[in-house]
Write a structure and sequence with these properties.
Length: 285
């Protein structure tokens, strides 16, 4: 072994000894995940496994349950689409432009992360209620937001925006401006440059942000119940229906709805992981 290779060998040995062994680290990881994540989910699945097919049919065939599930997932999908468009716009402005107050706007993007959901719900209700700052002007125009499904979507947009912005923002920072200049020199206009050069580069991260915002909106509870009005069959979301059934001691119904939401949430999580894997493979290629 040459003398020049000794520093590299020392750095390699130091880097590999930071974590005290693969087996202890893996054992602790599995134990922690089992204790915090797997055991509660396993308890839910075991409880749901005791439900008969007749009970499943009665619960999932209830119009109130279907309406709540449809509003939760349909509203979450609509909110995620809105956040995908406007979240990309916000990320673009924060990355590509320097202007007074930029750091303040950048901090405001993270506000839904830190703000308690109940506070967000109360603030949105005060804003969009019939006597609120905006509601008093919107309702004479025939646009009612509070206590309607539209209010549910507004609350979901509020809590989901940071997921898209923070997922797209670092990828936009890595997009080489020389690619845009090359496209412009070849005769491409701004729309062609965006759709053929920029969008393919940020598409994996944009889809990941969309999926994260969708998953977050599906399980949202605190900020939604205040502005939704919680009218059965109209503005009642699935998490609230689960709470209602628990208060009525209908544990079978609550477990069945929770199991359905768990299955869909797991599918969304799997989709997010696949999108992230696709993104890594695409960037590596």
């Amino acid at each position: 072994m040459t003398t020049a290779a000794l520093p590299l060998l020392r750095r390699t040995r130091v880097a590999s000894s930071v974590i005290p062994g693969f087996a202890p680290a893996l054992g602790f990881t599995l134990f922690y995940l089992s204790l915090v994540v797997l055991l509660p989910l396993a308890a839910l699945l075991l409880k749901a496994a005791g439900t008969t097919f007749e009970q499943w049919g009665r619960i999932l065939g209830d119009s109130r349950v279907l309406s709540a599930l449809g509003l939760s997932f349909g509203g979450a999908f609509a909110a995620a689409l809105i956040n995908a468009v406007f979240g990309l716009l916000v990320a673009w402005v924060l990355v590509r432009y320097s202007f007074p107050g930029r750091k303040i706007i950048d901090a405001l993007v993270d506000l839904p992360f830190a703000l308690p959901t109940a506070v967000a719900g109360i603030a949105l209700t005060a804003l969009y209620a019939p006597n609120g700052w905006l509601g008093r002007h919107l309702e004479p125009l025939g646009l009612k937001v509070a206590f309607t499904p539209l209010g549910v979507v507004v609350a979901m947009v509020f809590i989901g925006l940071p997921f898209v912005v923070r997922t797209v923002e670092p990828v936009l920072q890595d997009v080489d401006l020389e690619l845009e200049e090359a496209a412009a020199s070849l005769g491409a206009d701004r729309l062609q440059t965006f759709f053929r050069v920029i969008l393919p580069a940020i598409a994996p991260s944009l889809l990941t942000g969309f999926s994260l915002a969708l998953a977050r909106a599906v399980g949202e509870y605190g900020s939604v119940i205040f502005i939704a009005g919680n009218l059965p069959g109209v503005s009642e979301i699935a998490p609230l229906l689960i709470i209602t059934k628990l208060e009525q001691y209908d544990y079978v119904g609550a477990t069945a709805i929770a199991a359905v939401m768990l299955a869909i949430s797991f599918t969304l999580l799997l989709a997010v992981n696949l999108l992230q894997k696709w993104r890594r493979a695409r960037m590596g290629a």
